[in-house]
Amino acid sequence: MAVAARALWKGYVRFGEVTAPVALYTATSTSERISFHTVNKETGNRVRREFVDSATGKPVEKEDQVKGYELDNDRYVVLDPEEVASAVPESDKTLRVQAFITCDDIEKVYFDKPYYLTPDKMGTEAYALLRDGMQKKNVAAIAQTVLFRRMRTVLLRAHDKGLIATTLNFDYEVRSAKEAFKDIPDIKIEGEMLELAKHIIGTKKGTFSADEFDDRYEAALAELIKAKLEGKALPKRAAPKVSKANDLLEALRQSAGMKKPPAASKKRTGKAAAAEGKKKAAEEGAPAQRRRAG
């Protein structure tokens, strides 16, 4: 994807006494995704969103809409747009590097959104100094500034010829992993099952390449729209079969390419065993009968 022609933010990055003018561009885009409008099913007309008073049911014009913090049911602290704006921290548009760290020092759950941080024409050397220094030391930088009307913590990493700036979630925004996983029972996997799992993981080891992965949801939506236009219906897909505990070992063996034991090796009883015994005896007696006949 080409970098957007217009910067989202312009300012400076400062480390020590070195300052470089920079610009921030979005690194991701949803413009290529299929988008939908809400439509009236009966008329086929597009539906317009409208804010209405919850008590009177009357529409509320934009100039009459203000922010409200709910204290309890139907009681709010009302804030005018000017009052909300006054709470935005003052900004000198400077990303101040507070520390250099290894990338592994930050859990990925804190990563928010990536951006491209590029140099201004007048500060390319200072920018390159930061980029090359981080590459040589194999570190990233932690910086803070006001971005998009909020104080943000930003992780800066050298990438190719430039820098990636990733906004980070604050601690209060990230749910506790301990809380999220508390209901998972303690199960110890060992023996053949663990060895087979390790073998399968080893055979699937590779590297990440973004162009190898397709957005199947977008493709499915495109197919659905085409089918609807042509008056066709898409076939319904069966839900994946969940591996049950008593089926895990067999599923692992099949994943590892191990064949099932041949049916002949199983213990035979009853008529099948008797028939097999007679056949074997007849085959063993045939050479003796041929010798006597000779």
From TrEMBL:
Ranges where the record places region Disordered: 252-294
Pfam families cross-referenced by the UniProt entry: Ku (PF02735)
Span of domain Ku: 57-186
GO molecular function terms noted in the UniProt entry: double-stranded DNA binding
GO terms (BP aspect): DNA recombination; double-strand break repair via nonhomologous end joining
UniProt keyword annotations, A-Z: DNA damage, DNA recombination, DNA repair, DNA-binding
Ranges that cross the membrane: none
Signal peptide feature range: none
Family recorded in the similarity comment: Belongs to the prokaryotic Ku family.
Entry-linked PANTHER family: NON-HOMOLOGOUS END JOINING PROTEIN KU
Reported function: With LigD forms a non-homologous end joining (NHEJ) DNA repair enzyme, which repairs dsDNA breaks with reduced fidelity. Binds linear dsDNA with 5'- and 3'- overhangs but not closed circular dsDNA nor ssDNA. Recruits and stimulates the ligase activity of LigD.
Assembly behavior: Homodimer. Interacts with LigD.
Name of the protein: Non-homologous end joining protein Ku
Organism encoding this protein: Sinorhizobium medicae (strain WSM419)
